[in-house]
Structure formats: C-alpha cells, structure tokens
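During the reporting period the student researcher (J.K.) took over the structure-prediction task from the postdoctoral fellow and processed the backlog of single-chain submissions. One of the processed entries is reproduced below for the supervisory committee.
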Amino acid sequence: MSFAVFQPCTCLDAPRRATFSHSSALSARARLQACATARIAMFLALSLAVAISQAQAAPRPLKSQSPPPSPPLLSADASPSVPVQAANREGADTSPVLPAAQAAMIHNVIASALSFIQPRALKAYTYPQLCLWGLQSLTALDPGLGIHLGNGQLILTQNTPLAPGTILLTRPAPPAQDLKAWVNTVMVTLQTAWQHAPALRQKGVSALLPAFFQEIFSHFDPYSRYLSPQQAHDERAYRQGDDYSIGVKLAERPGRSPTISAININSPAWENGLDIGQTVIMVDGRSTRNVPLDTVQNWLAGAPGSNVTLTVLQQGRRKTITLPRLRLPPETVFPDRQGPYTVLHITHFSSQTAEEVSFYLSNLLPATAQGDDGDVDRALAEKKLRIPGLIIDLRGNHGGTLQQAVMTAALLLDNGIAATTEGRDPVANHVWSVQGGDMLSGSPVAVVVDGGTASAAEVLAAALADHRRAAVVGTSTFGKGLVQIIGQMPNHGEVFVTWSRNFAPLGWPIQGLGVFPQLCLSAPGLPAEAQLAALAHGRNLLEVPLRQSRAVRVETPVSEVLSIRALCPASGADRDDLHQAARLLSSSQAYQAALAGIPDDLTSPAAPAAAP
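J.K. obtained the following structure tokens:
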C-alpha cells in the first residue's frame, strides 16, 4: 500500500447480501481457513510496492523556526485512541474576540494541514496560494468581506452601507516558503474579520475551518477534502468496521425459535463452527421460542468484549458455545450463483476483502483439490483442477483500499504488475507487483462492471483484463484513477489529498477513461447478441476501441478520451448483466476471443476513434 488508506467511497447501491453455506466438516474448514490466511500473508509480503524512484523523501525544513509537526498518516487499521470531540462550539458566537482556545486549535489545524498538503499534492502549489485560497472563505461566509493581494500587501476589506471599501487590515505578505509566517498572517486576518463582521460571528467558530478548506480544495479535484472530527469518525468507522457483535443474523420462524440466516466469516461465530440453518434455541439460558426476532437479536448484542452463550440445534443435536462480542470488519464479499457459475459480489474494498475472496475461492475447489494435510497449494501444484468459471461482480463498487484490490488480483494472477501509482512526491511512486499463484488455475473469469465501478475496483478489473486473465463485461466504468492520502489533524479531523494517479499494467491512466469492457452491454447500435456471435467465431467487434483505450496516456486530449467512452457509455447495473457474463463463459471460443481483444503490446499506432 503506497499509503495505508486510499480513497474510501461509500457504496450507494450495494448488492443484496447473499448467504453462503459452509456445511463441510469444521476440521476441513479450519484447514481451508488456515490455508487462505497463509496465502493472504504470503501475498501481503509479495505484493509490497516496489518504489519507481529510490529517492527517499527528505525532511522538508521550513525557513521559519519551530515548524509545526507533520500530522500522522493513518492506516486502514488505525484510529485515534482519544475520543473524538469537536474542537469548535456549534452555533453563533457574538463575542468580537475569537476565543483563545479555539483560535489556538484553528492555528494548529491550518499549520498541520498546510505542511501536509503542500509537499504531497499531485500538482505543485505554494503556501501563498493555499493561504489566499483559504482566506477567500471569508467572502463566502460574509459577502461584505474581501481579500486582496497586491504590491506585496495582503489587504482585508469590508463593504457596509455607510462605509464601502473600508480597509480593515493591511499586512506585508511573508516570504513564499515561510509557512509559520503565512499561518500567522492567516490567523491575524481571521481574528480581524471576526472582530468586525457580525455576519461572520453569526455563522459560528465551527464554520471557519470547513469553509477555509473547502475554498482550498475547490482548486484541487473532486476527491480532495477536509472532514470535521465527527465526519472523520464516521468515515473511520466505515473503513474499519464498528460493529461489536458475534457476527450472526437470524431469521424468524413464527411460533418457533429463529434460525441463523447469515454469518460474518470474520466473526467468532464462524470460527467456532456455527452454520447457516442452525436453530438458536437459547441465548444466555433464555429460551427463544415465540420470542420476537428483534428481542433475540438484541440479546446477541452487548458491551464490547463481553460474552454471549448460545445453544443451537441441528439435525436433532444440541450444541452450546460461548462467543465474545468483538469489533468486526465489515463484510464486503457476498457469494451467489448464476447458472453453473459462482458469483462473488464485492461491494467495496476494506481491510479484509482479499482474505474474504481467498476464503470463497478455496471453497470453490473440489474436495479432491485438498491434499491429505489440507494443503490446497500443494494439491494444485500436483494436479491442476479447474472450475466451470467465476463471475466477479464489481457493479456499484466505488473502491476502497488500493492494497486490497491488488491483493485480490494476486489471487488470480501468477505474477506481473497489477498497477502503478505516480505522483509528485517520490513516496507516492510505486509499482504494485504480484507473485504468488492463480488459485483457480486458469479457470474462466468474467468481471462485471458498470458506471458505478470506480477507483480500487477499476484497478482490479484493469489488472485482470490487461493480463488477459478475465473478460470484463458491462459498460465503461467511472474513471476515478486518482489516489488520496489521509492526514489526521490535531482536532481529530482529517484531510484527504490527491497525491498520485493510478495506471493499469499496459500503462494507460484510469482517471477520466475508466475500464473499457471486452463485452459492452451499452454499445449504441451493437447489441450483446451480435458481439457474442462474433466472439464465438473468434472476432471481437470492439477490437478498435479496446486497442485505442489501451493506448491512452495522460497527455491524450480529453476529446479523444470522451470519444472512446462514447462507444460504450457508462450506465447503471442491469439485471441481465450477470446472464450475459454467464453466456460469455459458456463458450470457450467466445471467452478466448474476448481475452484476445486486449493488445499484448502497443507497438502499432492506435486506431482512430470510430464506431465499431
């Protein structure tokens, strides 16, 4: 992971949860889990990014003395141990003096944020630019205020009916590299504006920082942003999971005890052998018969670290087990079926996604694929076993942790480059190499995407497609190929700063272009039937735009990029998408033709954008 947390995006339309039965013996499951865990550990070691540049990020001393410390970088598993509290009081503040404690916090946050942003931003910005943009927020909060820089002087003005154009402050602009002096200038300007602008005080102290950073990031890109302490807390909970439970969901049976309908595979319940379909007859000694489902589900909840005792019944046999209530990472992978093919819906990429995928892939293997000692890898090496095919559903997946997408690709690739990231800061430059072994031994794979597939999900689709390991089915994806780094602020807020671009294995940028599928379900005038018929005869009707999409580079004009996307417009999910993916997998010749549509080199010139 080039930085431990990359852009996490909330899944707006996550697929319906599907259940996955694990009725095999507990010992076999334990071996599979141990194998999957060991494989993920191996991939974690082998998937470490190799720096494109060996240059180390040297300390960046400020010209002024006593510079503020750089804020800590957060990992996907890290969260502040201090309870999150808002640094600013909500509501209006009629005092003409900015409260000292809150002024000090604003100073520290701005200083930390600017020292974090300036060296890492994808584009080069100076401290004067950042500070002047931020101070423009005063005009947004009170249109009567104005900020001007001219002849080396920073000027704060105020327009009132009685005194238009009144100069409230004139201050020499500090040297461009003097962060401390610029932060002090910002604070003096804020204090002066606060003193003279009742409309600003009416907005309240809590409005100052969000407005300041909103103005700065309006000059960046759609993904760089500031999160207030509460917003940052909520996002961390989403990234890391904030569910304290045993990982069991129940289904009601009127007049009888409830049954287990779903289990989080990251949970104590799964690890201790509970299974879908088992009847929960007692919770902590209390009978569940004729008890409302909500009540029983509440019995399972409790304080973090506390225990709950369940008595379950299956095939006439009782089993009593005590389980701890733990913080569980969110489930992100949900299995389903489409005809003879297993479908893995991946809703987003969190800290355990690759391990979840590895677990389900292990369960897809026939029992004979396990050696006498339960070693799946050894058995696969001795006898290559294949399954009919796999469908990975990434529709509506807005991304998440980049490393997890790379590790998921490593489960299906023998070796190679999954992605590269390039930025202005040398630390942002990485080659994401994988080497481990295809768990499915080349079994056919289709990746289903739509216009909501973005970021880390696009990295996975591009990696599998460019290596001719999977056929992408659907529409052009969103085209979010910018990577954010997160900095924690002194008030427990966070800043997300775009610091690198994602590039696919064949060198094309994901940003703006997205992934162009081998079987397009939105091509104007080119129905899926015609494409599948051509593929079955070894021809890909999308060969021209596929080659051109792989020839795009950062400097390619936007008009050319848009012309490529127009040949397979981004659109939402359709219930027929999985059916079309299954049809492609059902024909070996069509599937191989779809894979071959991806060029293995780009030595010849790209074809002009034209209707296929």
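The committee noted the following: Residues 243-328 form a domain with the Pdz3 Domain fold (CATH 2.30.42.10).
J.K. will present the remaining backlog at the next meeting.
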